[in-house]
Specification:
alpha/beta, globular
Length: 263
Amino acid sequence: MDIFKREIDGGKAFDWGRASTDYAKYRDIYPPVFFEKVAERGLCVKGQKVLDLGTGTGVVPRSVYHYGAEWVGSDISENQISQARILAEKEGKKIEFVVSSAEDIDFPDGTFDVITACQCFFYFQYDVVLPKLARLLKDGGRLVILFMAWVPADDALAKASEELVLKYNPDWSGGGYERTPVFVPEIAEKYFDIEARDQYDLMVPFTRESWNGRMKACRGVGASMTPDTIEKWEAEHMKMLRENAPEAFEVLHHAASAVLKKR
């Protein structure tokens, strides 16, 4: 399903469903500490029911499943949800998945203890989604917004990969990330109080293949380029990696989160 947002990629359409196979294989890259910090706050743990918005291939619920929460994952892309179901079944994890945009998600009031949104919150229509999430949460429930991205200014390989994406897709606005707190729109103050924020750097391990796959599964490549363009980009990207990177390496990332408590 094509997604448009004026502030993203100059309004150019993208479809995560086109990248679902690579997404399933290469996007589960979060180090354990990324989710440990959430569980240490008593969130997404046993006794709680959690909704993961923009779940993609179910990376968050599958990664945090061992903490014992009951999970529902939703995504606008049917292809992404299909991959999520396959992976969860293969891993023996009982997770409910539904195809729905965040704006259209429909559950009874007070269904969830926690709602998570990882790498996706900026895609939502805040004036529609935030009051709905407040309604879906129980009294005192939490909304957890998570984000992690490579830092091109301080990692030469990440910068080179970004430049190659822009060579083939100059409209892509996903590059040039700088360390910053998770964005919380002003309208959120009507429904939530910011309970906690966190920021930290971390190194994420890759091989040439997995980094190429991670980049290929980003919005600027697999979700928006034509198949012919992807093939050309991938050939040049792999050549760049063979010439500039060892077989195994680490890429600097920055992680940020915000925990919002329902008023």
